[in-house]
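Format is sequence with structure; example below:
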Amino acid sequence: MKFVTGETKQTISYQTIAEGGLNHQSVTVHGAVHALRDMGGITFLTLRMADGAIQCVCAPEVVPRGLAEECAVELSGTVRTEPRAPGGWEIGVESIAVLTRPAAPMPVSLGKRKLGLHLDTELPLRPVILRDLRRRAVFKIQEGLTRAFREYLTGVGFTEIHTPKIVSAGAEGGSNIFKLDYFGKKAYLAQSPQIYKQTMVGVYERVFEVGPVFRAEKHATARHLNEYTGLDFEMGYIRSIYDVMEVETGFLAYAMALLKREYSREVALLGVVLPDVTKIPCLRFDEAKRLAAEKYGYQIRDPFDLEPEEEAHIGRYAREEMGSDLVFITHYPAKKRPFYAMDDLEDPKYTLSFDLLFRGLEVTTGGQRIHDYHQQVAKMEGRGMDPADFESYLMIHKCGMPPHGGLGIGLERLTMQLCSLDNIRAASLFPRDRSRLDP
């Protein structure tokens, strides 16, 4: 009888080789043939491993017949320093065992430094294009951001939660919501975890979630997706929106330090410039619009919201005048904020809410929420909403809630800006937009 005990096979990683402790030692490693160059008397093989790629040097008699790109192999050889090799290391190969062979040639060679594909050409080939080293680096950095979010928030007393994505009502209102038939009842895909994370503030006080968000918006821009990943948190007993903004600033500082320390290869490969998050300036909505319009000489067209061009101008203003890649914009007009946003008592035309702009693009929306039952019902009714549709949500207000607030960060947008990508689809493994359901 065989028993499984949970022991995992230890394999040699690229990181272990790059750290230098295996110099002049024999190793056995596995991976995929990323590139293959026959130089006559010698063959250079780039082995793509889980966490990097290493140059391997093979004598002709070592190379199996029919070896090709994307063959899965296990090879043995000696590790040695080689300043001319990418990463400074190579393996002198002594034997290669082919584990699997592709049934067809690759649609594009991944051995090039840049593939040069148009995004519309690339996306249908995404299952194999993601093996490209630069594309892998984007999603390793995205992993680092998500990891930092979990680690930082857990460290400051937040509890991770998992909320439903099939809901009976939209959290944001409006028509941008996917409808579905739920066993004969009307249901929707969640626009955000807003209602549930507020609910859980009454349970744990500080909560966060990493999960999908769905928006049925008929857009086709470089900054929008119909399904994206939200980094959400909510916290109770706040004194003002600045408590929420401080937590986000702490997370971003933690994330940038983590990327610098543990994702340096990916940062270098993509040429990522990590922003200074020591301190982030804050501007009121109306002030930010005025300052940018005056400096760059244009007329304000929409007094209630920021147009994409305005976000870019305000981001430029923050960089030139305040030396920051990030800027908090506070006190958005009530007209453009959802029903749960708390109005500013000093001027109810504005809300106690904010956005964070990163290099001229909104990556975060947050603020203080209404915690008083009568105030929340009045705001719903003032917007033509029926409080009866939100009975379970209003239960928390009826039964008492502390002052609380939170935010949602778009993971793909944050990744796009950090990695200087031209289109948000490049920051999504398998993007969903108006026309794309596959792959």
Observations:
- Residues 31 and 50 are 7 Å apart (CA to CA).
